[in-house]
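Researcher: Structure for this, please.
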Amino acid sequence: MDLPPLYAAGLVLVVTLANVLALRVLAAVTGAKSVGEGANGASRLLYMGQVFAALLVASSAVKNAAEGATFSRDLAWSLALGVLGTVLVVVVGRLGLGLLLAAKLPKEIERGNSAAGLAAGAHFAATGIITSRAIAGSDLRGLALSFAFFALAQVTLHVFVTLFRIVTSYDDAEQIQGENMAAAISYGGVALAIAIIVARALEGNFTGWTSSLRGYAGVLVTLVALYPVRQVFVQMVLLGGGFSLHGGFIDRAVAGERSEGIAAIEAVSYLATAFAVARLA
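Model: Predicted structure, token format:
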């Protein structure tokens, strides 16, 4: 049922505050640097991604858990989903960063490497986009199903980000550790775009494993569009470079010239494609 706007807004506010508190607790447990006075910009960029994820998870938790039966039940389930989702974002996000961008990234952020902070923040935001769509349910069966699809979606995100990196001729982890902001912008764009499409693939009611997985795979096929968007639309049409199956003008601009402008054009093109897929698929 549709919740009264003020009722829903109140629940979202409470869950948001709980999620932010969860971020603070997790930061203290993991020994993360403070983002308050005296913090470096890299740490704040990472925190930006985590806060973005926590806000998405809060609204999604209320939407998926609150039924309007009783306030106490709605609050309890919304808080449970929200805090659980936030914990998953932080834990899975940290694991994913270690797999995709090497274990040295946290030290780079502590050192004040803004490129590392931006890449990490974008990765947490991408994790939050998927988590906000995957974590749902107002009973134990619903939670179990949501966990299964959450795991599937996170594996999908990491697999496709890894596959897409094959298109580039440079090592983005190495470039980001070398404080190449252009490489971080490019990485952030593709990670967020893939997350948006994966989140779209998660939409819909569970109608059985076969039909649900078929629908999930059907949307994921559109991820292939990101390759011609990069190599043809951005590189040839927008930037006037020559055609190449691998590497090319974009790679030289990002890795060699460290052109943040070209990286931004690349990233925005990915995001526009992802939003179009999410709207039309």
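Researcher: Any notable elements?
Model: The chain has a mean pLDDT of 90. Residues 233 and 239 are 8 Å apart (CA to CA).
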